[in-house]
């Protein structure tokens, strides 16, 4: 099996036309957790109609809380994509039960299928591929399945820091997508530098991985908060973007905003319409309201909250 090789590429430095940014941000998605969703009085005041909302399933969160959050968001008119982390799903019966609950109570028909950042599996599953192979999502008629991508690698999967295992997994998922009735895409971990992201996406395409990429982007947040999350989530070389910013006293106390990375990716997309990054997926590490406000200011009509439409 051919492995994916990566080279360093500098990000574009030219100013990006607002129209290109708006085009990249069209149909963006955002991630919430039950405990963060509870703090939002009305999602329709923050998010555009039809925004896909992922619900992150952190170890220890009761499935009842996950389903209740999904039900609330679906009632407000948002497509809901809950996480299905393999390592916290005990067995096939549990998987089938979760799917049935989401469908029965919230009409969910899409999922982000991932291994999950848990050291010891709770049961028989340890990878997203096992969940996909179970056939339970197909049996339930799920229309969309997203899988995880790691532009800078993942030391949980490749402890040596390489890309061998994550690359092989994506090749497997590409092959699976060609036999599945569900629409599939790659939703990635967040990163802070456009050049390596572009190189990673181009390399996937060159190696026959044609799944659309929904690139993970950290929303506005305090610099200290972002650095903490980036280290905890295993963000790779692009962490230096934050570390360099932290050394600049004039920027240290200012909140980070993703203008640079979004602008560079948007410029590349405008110049290369067949670029395989198709959507932006936000991690609102500084809060949902701060992220939604940034999107309203930068995404044109695609950032207008549902209550204003």
Structural description of this entry:
By secondary structure, the protein is an alpha/beta fold. It has one domain: TIM Barrel (Alpha-Beta Barrel). The protein has 13 helices and 8 strands. It has helices at 18-25, 34-37, 63-75, 92-106, 128-133, 136-139, 164-177, 194-206, 223-232, 239-246, 249-252, 259-271, 288-298, and strands at residues 29-32, 52-55, 80-85, 110-114, 144-149, 183-190, 213-218, 277-283. The protein has an 8-stranded parallel barrel. Strand 3, helix 4 (92-106) and strand 4 (110-114) form a beta-alpha-beta unit. The protein is globular, with a radius of gyration of 19 Å. GO terms for molecular function: oxidoreductase activity. InterPro entries: FAD-linked_oxidoreductase-like (IPR029041). This is Methylenetetrahydrofolate reductase (NADPH).
Bulk shape = globular
Characterize the biggest β-sheet.
8 strands, parallel, barrel
Q: What do we call the CATH topology?
A: TIM Barrel
Give the tally of β-strands: 8
- Distance between the amino and carboxyl termini: 50 Å
| Secondary structure tally, helices | 13
Structural class: alpha/beta
Please report the first level of CATH classification, the CATH class. Alpha Beta
Portion of residues in beta strands equals: 5-15%
How would you concisely characterize the structure shown here?
The chain has helices at 18-25, 34-37, 63-75, 92-106, 128-133, 136-139, 164-177, 194-206, 223-232, 239-246, 249-252, 259-271, 288-298; strands spanning 29-32, 52-55, 80-85, 110-114, 144-149, 183-190, 213-218, 277-283.
